[in-house]
Every structure is written in C-alpha cells, then in structure tokens.
User: What shape does this take?
Amino acid sequence: MASSVTSTKIIRIGPNGQENAPDLVANEEPLEIRLGIGSANEREQLSLSVTMRTPGHDKELALGFLFTEGIINSFDDVSSIEYCQTVKTEEAENVIRVELRPTIQLDADKLSRHFYTTSSCGVCGKSSIDAVQVPIQPLKDHFQKVDSKVVCQLPKLLEDAQMVFEHTGGLHACGLFSSDGKLLELREDVGRHNAVDKLVGVLLSKKMLPASDAILMLSGRVSFELVQKAARAGINFIAAIGAPSSLAIEMAKKHDITMVGFLKNSSFNIYSGEKRIEISKGTCQ
Assistant: This one.
C-alpha cells in the first residue's frame, strides 16, 4: 500500500540563515476508477474517472465517488472492488475496478463521459451546473439542536485528529461528528472533494447513511459540489473553517441544510438553517 507521506530534502531559511533539513510532504498520485457493468455473461469495463489523490482509503474513495455522483445508491449495488492487477508497474495500486451487480441497470452512454478531477477542483471539465447535479432525496430532519459551544470546539477536535496533516501541513480533512461533538469518522486528502468522498465511502460501507443526525466538519472552504455530496449522504449540518461560495449557500438553502462558515474557536457565521443551533451566552472563548 502506497504511503500517504514521502520524505524530501529542503533548504530552510530562518533567522540564522539557511540549513539543509529533511521534511515530510503529502503524497499525490493519480487514481483511475474503472467500472464493471452488464449481465453476468456480457461484462463491460468503463474507465470512469481519474482523480489526483493522497493514497490510502482508495476503495472508500471509489465507493464515495460513485455514490455522490449518483451512479450507485447503495453499498449493495457493488459486488466487488479491487485494485487492477494487470497494469503497468507504475500504475500498481493506482487503478481500481468496481464491479456492479449484474442486476444494476445503467446508461452506458451517459457514463462514457470521462471525468477528470484534479486535487483542487472537483467539477473541472463539467460544462454546466445542470450537468453536475445528481438526484438527492429529501433529507430527514430529526436532528437534535447543537449547542453553539460544541460548534466552536469542532475545528480543534478536527485538527487534533488529523494524523497526516500533523506531519505535512498539506492535507484537507473532513470529519463526521455527533451532535454532542464526538468524532465518528475522519478522512484526509490533498483534494477537498476526495476527502469527502472517502468519508462518504466508509459511511456507505458501514451502512451509516443517511447521516442525518451528524455534523460534517470541513477544514477549508465550502463549494457547491461539497454541499451536493453532503446532501447525497443525507447530512443536513455542514460546518467549515473557510467560506462558502454563493452556489454552496444556494444549494444549502434549497435542501434545508444548516451551513456554518468562518468557524473559529471564538466566532462563526451562519448562512442557512439556524434552527439547528442552540445559541448559548458566552459561546466561543
């Protein structure tokens, strides 16, 4: 299994001039996702996506991507998921094939468009908002209100749990928290969208979806696509250290998702869904 980090040599400049030093950086490698579809006697392979990701939790990444793109709707739609063995040496553990059950009917022509996603942009190459929207079921709303003091604790809780970030400083993270601030699952990646897909993938495999009673905490900004992925997973509370985009806010309001941005240990902004937050006096210290 490829490592999430690699060592490199750097020249560090500081008050005492320069010095040679070792350093750790986050790995970034391509992952090709191939899809096996068709009847038991007539299987067809499609090369569906190439994404630049941090190696690790690749099966979860593939599962989460297929689910958030609306290609599968359940973990039961998948019969197997494995790394491809008949590839070039340099492609080892960088090509993964997901076999869908023969009973799953898909539009092969629709799937034949080749997704290309970089580590920084999840929707590059998709020509319009209509083209990237996927079916989203109405979200269940039995969410218990979250105390604003709990909200303010989330950035520190997320940071403390980021093992790879601690060594490299170069990864995005997303964590799923209970309404009382307990960390349920966390994933890291060089790409924000990959981190969320990895998280959704593990939730899908554990049959924890829809996650309508949990909080999605993001280490960066919030894009339209990240809100859509959360909505597909049934998540109706998103908190982020960074800012949301206008389309992210629009989608959050459309699906009645609580969105918190610019979250610090001393303050935060509510962009939608304030009904799910209980504001306490002296909230953030």
Notes: The mean pLDDT is 87. The longest helix spans residues 148-161. The two ends are 42 Å apart (CA to CA). Residues 96 and 220 are 28 Å apart (CA to CA).
